[in-house]
Write a structure and sequence with these properties.
Blueprint: H1 6-12, E1 14-16, H2 26-35, E2 39-42, H3 50-68, E3 73-76, H4 96-103, H5 112-128, E4 132-133, H6 158-175, E5 178-184, E6 200-201, H7 205-210, H8 214-223, E7 228-231, E8 235-236, H9 237-240, H10 252-261, E9 267-269, H11 276-279, H12 284-294, E10 299-301, H13 305-321, H14 326-342, H15 354-361, H16 364-377, E11 379-383, E12 396-400, H17 418-426, E13 429-432, E14 447-452, H18 459-469, E15 475-479, E16 494-497, H19 503-515
Parallel strand pairs: 1-2, 1-10, 2-3, 3-4, 4-5, 5-7, 6-8, 7-9, 12-13, 12-14, 14-15, 15-16
Antiparallel strand pairs: 11-16
Length: 529
């Protein structure tokens, strides 16, 4: 570290996104050349077939190493479920709440499968050249109207979240990547999406310690310096009083609670610094300085060159003016380099193994493992599925929306249409519904199957549900998002929960209709159930 300039040390504290799926990428090159950016984050826009992604990561690593003798952290949000950046073959797996349901985690079930999912995920990511995964989610989803966490959480109790989250983190680490849990100090008890606005948690400190903070305390104790934590852009009134200081910019949250009280000694990453919760408060240079003053080590800046440039310039100016002591930059840089050494990033990077990358993505045994877990996650909330439905052809009408990216974290989610899948598999009458087109098509049907996705946030889905509930035709409701939508379904012959809307979960729903089996156990409490 003694050979690095202050500009280069600041570059090690930046984790940047870029637009392309191959190198040379003009933005990535410019960020390295102008600001010595030392780390990168991948999104679906950057990811193609596994071999091509391995080439991209290999090129990033080689170029960064050639400049400073230090390879980059290459990060990704590969949580599972609807938050996946790499979707090819075995790289896709169920999300947190679905995994908890499949393993009966809330009832003390065997969660070893979650650790195995993490291990397989870690090994596959490392084969691609990725060495950091922004997972597991350790938020306790105690607010059913939470618009951005929901099924990304393992459950609504700290016990379930801690057990499942630590298992996933252990698996990721065994697979060769650094786990980075999120979103500290807990994003589960709010009803605002921090991509858009500033969430505020008004819970008392004792309640926060027992619920939101408990999984992070266990994580800090278990993993120490060998892992990361991502901060959340939300306000804890118990820590900040009436001041609207987001956790990412709060010394009380990062240096005080996380470092001193919980004893966390690993890397602290910020959530994306371009999110609305921060940009509404400060310009990007000022926000960057405040995040470092709070104790953050690495600033995540996911999209634009300008945001990275302003953050780098703001940090450099703060050091030159004396606002940020050089020792503060050195402390973060030392932690970053120590983590990179453990990940093997201070030695010359090997040539990417394109065959190994492709083999991981095409691993049929791993893919089948994920399929079986998805099938095991399908949960009977009420009533029962009659396998005869699978053989009734066009007498059954299925109404389903097309899957799409509902929140900022679900960027570029693959399109999935469960209605079309059911028509192809069973010959059911399929009607794709949307806010713009949800009038019932004419016809006489023996059964209606209505698929809801986060209907508690959707007035048109609620109107469609009410219309079908009063039609006099037997109704089966399929919940392709949070199981909290159960509270909306007052008249149905059966309600089943799939927790997410992905290719895996959609296929698992059809298998449940075929077999009548719904063996999952819901890991959250539901109103009226």
């Amino acid at each position: 570290m003694q050979n690095l300039s202050i500009r280069q040390m600041i570059g090690q504290m930046l984790l940047a996104g870029f637009p392309g799926a191959a190198m040379p990428d003009a933005q990535a090159l410019r960020l390295m050349e102008e600001y010595d950016v030392g780390n990168f984050i991948l999104f679906a826009r950057n990811i193609g077939p596994a071999a091509e992604t391995a080439q991209l990561c290999g090129a990033l690593s080689s170029m960064a190493y050639a400049r400073l003798g230090i390879a980059p952290l290459i990060a990704i949000d590969q949580e599972g479920g609807t938050v996946l950046r790499a979707h090819e073959g075995a790289l896709a797996f169920p999300g947190a709440m679905a995994l908890a349901a499949a393993t009966h985690a809330a009832a003390g079930g065997d969660i070893s499968a979650i650790k195995e999912v993490g291990r397989r995920c870690g090994a596959a990511l490392r084969a691609l050249g990725v060495n950091v995964n922004f997972a597991p989610v350790l938020d306790v989803n105690s607010e059913p109207k939470n618009p951005v966490i929901g099924v990304r959480a393992y459950g609504d109790t700290p016990e379930t979240v801690t057990a499942c989250g630590l298992a996933m983190a252990e698996g990721l680490r065994a697979g060769g990547v650094m786990p980075v849990c999120k979103h500290f100090p807990g994003h589960g008890n709010v009803a605002v999406d921090s991509h858009i606005g500033l969430p505020i948690n008004c819970a008392e400190r004792d309640a926060l310690a027992k619920t939101e903070w408990a999984p992070f305390a266990a994580y800090a104790a278990r993993f120490g310096a060998d892992a990361g934590v991502m901060t959340a852009h939300l306000v804890c009134r118990a820590l900040e009083g009436e001041a609207d200081v987001p956790g990412t910019l709060s010394p009380r949250v990062v240096n005080g609670l996380l470092r001193q009280e919980l004893g966390f000694s690993g890397l602290v990453f910020t959530d994306c610094m371009e999110m609305g919760a921060l940009t509404a408060l400060y310009d990007r240079g000022e926000a960057a300085v405040r995040a470092v003053e709070a104790g953050c080590d690495i600033l995540t800046i996911s999209h634009t060159y300008e945001a990275v440039a302003e953050a780098a310039q703001g940090l450099l100016a703060a050091v030159e003016s004396g606002r940020l002591p050089r020792a503060r930059i050195e402390a973060s840089c030392a932690r970053i380099l120590a983590a990179k050494q453990k990940l093997g990033l201070t030695a010359a990077p090997a040539e990417p193994d394109l065959q190994a990358a492709q083999a991981c993505a095409a691993d049929k045994e791993a893919a089948l493992f994920h399929v079986k877990l998805a099938e095991s996650s399908i949960t009977r909330i009420s009533g029962a599925l009659n396998p005869a439905l699978a053989h009734m052809g066009a007498q059954v009408r299925i109404l389903a929306p097309e899957a799409y990216a509902r929140t900022g974290v679900e960027l570029d989610a693959p399109r999935v249409n469960l209605a079309a899948m059911a028509q192809a598999r069973f010959g059911w009458h399929a009607q794709t519904v949307s806010e713009a087109a949800h009038a019932l098509e004419p016809g006489q049907f023996a059964v209606n199957v209505l698929c809801l996705r986060e209907a508690r946030f959707s007035s048109w889905q609620q109107a469609l549900l009410a219309q079908l509930s009063e039609s006099g035709v037997p109704l089966v409701a399929v919940l392709l998002g949070g199981p909290y939508d159960t509270a909306l379904v007052e008249k149905a012959d059966a309600v089943i929960a799939a927790y997410e809307y992905t290719r895996l979960s959609a296929a698992a729903v059809l298998t449940a209709f075929e077999t009548g089996r719904c063996n999952g156990l819901c890991p959250v409490r539901l109103q009226g159930v």
